[in-house]
Design a protein that fits this description.
heterodimer, A: alpha/beta, 7 helices, 7 strands, 27% helix, 17% strand, B: 430 residues, alpha/beta, Aconitase, domain 3, 2 domains, five-stranded parallel beta sheet, 14 helices, 18 strands
């Protein structure tokens, strides 16, 4: 499994709610239909106010984001239980969200769907990093290295969450570990 | 050491004698609720069985509830098709607790569940809706989950890998003054705790004020517990719970009124005296941006919403009707009212509340989530300001990121409808 992710970060602040991650008007899109899954990615984080976030997470007319890593403050993903939130981010090719803390349902939805790795970090990176800064996240070492400064920060190891996201969500994990019996 | 209500319920449902914060348990689920997002759950549920020789089967069709409320009646062909698909699944799997778009048995899920006696003290309730915390008002452990987790509950009948949360005790004393009530209390509390102050925790409400509060008010407290990040809110079941279930929900079974042990361990305790509490307002764009009404009065408002799973119950409509009766809603302001269920709507009609509201100029809509979902009814124009008894004021919540939402009680909403500005309902000149 890939354990190192490098790329530019997209930086957001505290209390990014699920309406900002994926506004309710797009909840009709069905993630199990491949075309609609792709479309969800185009709308990831589109509810962020342009006045505060002039750089959009996904450029107009594109389906994927240029930022594989999102850096956030406290309480990322607060609000509704909509699974579309991690799915939209995952569809936009976000692989890791590094936040000071997560709302419970969002965190569990990341794991259940296997769309991305939710990593908790005590360092308030959303103050020191800016959108476009390049970092390397190493899941095995539970560290994030900032390319420009060379600074290395540790985050809380993913523990039991890791193999489930690696497998691509709870059902794939259950299949892999024999909890769901394979045919024949 | 003793156990809190949440710890007791989780231990028992997991076949354990004892549970403490940090334990990971697999509680049996007594009730599993979804709304229109059952469509997603169905997809995930079928996915489990792909590539196996097993036939998709719900673990217990009597324990699954599906209630249409988010987009009722359907606003688009896509929604209507999703709803149709859910209806077909409900019929194929003989799901007993299905509430379609109807004036008799329909309504908002968090009103229908208690109203029909589906929720009992001591139960484990899961729902694919974050405001599933509401049902802690009846002494259940109730929490929101995503569609994939729900599919696993449908298959297994247990919630897997549930951490036992630590409990914060909220001790409430004093008597509410006129036009102040449960909504003001919970807004005040969220302001104190912050939007993430109870993340991964349970709020257990106790004290004389809670003991004297009707179940309708307790539902408001538990409904909004999630806005402080709580996994669940709980009011220990008592005589009032038994009264509500027997008188209002027609439940005749014996109840297990689970109480916390006297030596239960709480992570911390918060003391609140409501006697001097003012009406509270959550200002844009977070629910924890709470101010007493005195600091916000005079702010012009364009749309006022009374209703939702938070404040669309009979006592809420009674309060609003009493304030606007014989008066007129200010021109330039629109008042939209969403009764929480068909039953609430019919009761409000019989008692004259609907008439009083409409005579004053309110538009009384069908029961449902309405503008609180932001896709359906009651969208806001650019630059408009809403004042609402709902539970979220996130930017864009009502469908337009170029608008603002203030949250308040039904009393503040009704008083403000008369003036077109945020108004203190205790104002004698009203």
């Amino acid at each position: 499994m890939q354990s190192v992710f490098s790329g530019p970060v997209y930086v957001v602040r505290d209390n990014i709610d699920t309406d900002q991650i994926i506004p309710a008007q797009y909840l009709n899109l069905v993630p199990t239909i491949p075309d609609e899954y792709e479309k969800l990615g185009a709308y990831a984080l589109c509810g962020l106010p342009e006045s505060l976030y002039p750089t959009r997470y996904v450029k107009e007319g594109q389906l994927d984001s240029a930022y594989p890593i999102v850096v956030a403050g406290r309480n990322f993903g607060c609000g509704s239980s909509r699974e579309h939130a991690p799915i939209a981010l995952g569809s936009a090719r976000c692989r890791v969200v590094l936040a000071e803390s997560f709302a419970r349902i969002f965190f569990r939805n990341c794991v259940a769907t296997g769309e991305l790795y939710p990593c908790e970090i005590t360092e308030r990176l959303c103050e020191t990093l800016k959108t476009g800064d390049v970092v390397t996240v190493n899941l095995d070492a539970a560290t994030v290295t900032v390319q420009q400064s060379g600074k290395v920060y540790s985050f809380k190891p993913l523990g039991d969450v890791r193999p489930v996201v690696d497998a691509g969500g709870i059902f794939n994990y259950a299949r892999k570990s024999g909890m769901i019996p394979a045919q024949g | 050491m003793g156990m809190t209500v949440a710890e007791k319920i989780l231990a028992r449902a997991s076949g354990l004698a004892f549970a403490q914060p940090g334990d990971v348990v697999e509680p049996k689920v007594d009730l599993a609720m979804s709304h229109e997002n059952a469509a997603l759950v169905i997809n995930q549920f079928n996915e489990i069985y792909q590539g196996t020789e097993l036939t998709p089967r719900i673990w217990d069709a009597s324990k699954v509830a599906v209630i249409f409320d988010h987009r009722v009646p359907a606003e688009s062909p896509k929604t209507a098709t999703n709803q149709k698909k859910v209806r077909e699944f409900v019929a194929a799997h003989a799901l007993a607790k299905f509430h379609d778009i109807r004036g008799d048995v329909g309504g908002i899920c968090h009103q229908v569940l208690p109203e029909y006696g589906y929720v009992r003290p001591g139960m484990v309730v899961v729902g694919t809706d974050s405001h599933t915390t509401s049902h802690g008002a009846l002494g259940a452990f109730a929490f929101g989950i995503g569609a994939t987790e729900m599919a696993s509950v449908w298959a297994l009948g247990v919630a897997v890998n549930v951490e036992v949360p630590a409990t914060i005790k909220i001790n409430v004393r004093g008597r509410f003054s006129r036009c102040v009530g449960p909504k003001d209390l919970i807004l005040y509390l969220i302001g104190q705790l912050t939007a993430q102050g109870a993340n991964f925790k349970v709020l257990e409400f106790q004290g004389e004020t809670i003991e004297q509060m009707f179940t309708s008010g307790r539902l408001v407290l538990c409904n909004m517990s999630v806005e402080a990040g709580a996994t669940a809110g709980i009011v220990p079941a008592d005589e009032e719970t038994a009264r509500y279930l027997s008188e209002e929900a027609g439940v005749t079974d014996s109840l297990d009124l689970v109480q916390p042990d006297p030596d239960a361990g709480y992570e911390r305790e918060v003391e609140i005296n409501v006697s001097a509490l003012s009406p509270q307002i959550a200002c844009p764009h977070t629910v924890d941006n709470v101010k007493p009404v005195e600091q916000v009065v005079g702010r012009p408002v364009h749309q006022i919403v009374i209703g939702s799973c938070t404040n669309g119950r009979l006592d809420d409509l009674a309060m609003a009707a009493r304030i606007v009766k014989g008066r007129k809603i200010a021109s330039g302001t629109r008042l939209l009212v969403f009764p929480a269920s068909g039953k609430v709507y019919r009761q409000a009609l019989a008692k004259g509340y609907v008439g009083a509201l409409m005579q004053a100029g309110a538009v009384v809509m069908n029961s449902g989530c309405g503008p609180c979902l932001g896709v359906h009814e009651g969208a806001l124009g650019d630059g408009e300001i809403a004042l609402s008894t709902t539970n979220r004021n996130f930017k864009g919540r009502m469908g337009n990121p170029n608008s603002e939402i203030y949250l308040c009680s039904p009393a503040v909403a009704a008083a403000s409808a008369l003036t077109g500005r945020i108004t203190d309902p205790r104002d004698e000149s009203l």
